[in-house]
Amino acid sequence: MKKVRHTHFSRTYCARSEDRKLRSSMEKKKFAVFDVDGTIFRSSLLIQVVNRLIENDVFPASARKVYERDYERWLNREGDYDAYIGAVVQAFVKHLKGVHYSALADAAEEIVEEQWKHVYRYTRDLIKDLEKRGYFILAVSHSPKTVLDKFTPRLGFNKTYGMLYEIGPQDCFTGKVIEEHLILNKASILRRAIEKENLTLAHSIGVGDTESDISFLELVAKPICFNPNLKLYTYAKRMKWDVVVERKDVVYKL
Predict the structure, then answer these.
(1) Which UniProt keywords apply (predicted)?
(2) What does the pLDDT average to over 68-93?
């Protein structure tokens, strides 16, 4: 008795199987995007690294003079944080030229090794929960990417965007920022990531703490303003966004 070969059935089954695989590979991923400094890390990675570069004699001690007045004013609640962090950025950029890449990488490694657990409970636990739910986790920050790349993988991030500084001959920094206009616009960075990583805005979540995060918070389905400064808080209340505050061992919504 001749065996019947179900050639047509086999071909149809294989075609459907391949089609399912193709559709599966094209499925867009849910994502969550976070600012880092003040949103996850309880300080500023840049501030910590600048201080360490001074301690390691990579930057001169005089570099502190660029920001110490603004620091004192902020500490005494006489000045604002923006002026302080702006002065720290100025000190960093001013003294980075001519520094070997390894000096920054070493300082970043030291700081992260010592302080990577200095994070907020709310955002730390949110990241863990979203990771379990299959979310693609993004970090978008104005801190140097060299530092961020030491920090964010420890917390489960899939992709990190930060400030890139040009490296010249002998692996020394030139002092120039690569594509500064792009990284300063967090919405542009997020749009690029959505396209590149095959992400979907459906069910997307964004978490930030200052007005510099508004541009990406406006894009996501669920914006969360965490420990916001006054400018972001005012905007969030007008837009009816979630506002979450962590104070000591208490987390609450406003």
Answers:
(1) Amino-acid biosynthesis, Hydrolase, Magnesium, Metal-binding, Serine biosynthesis
(2) 95
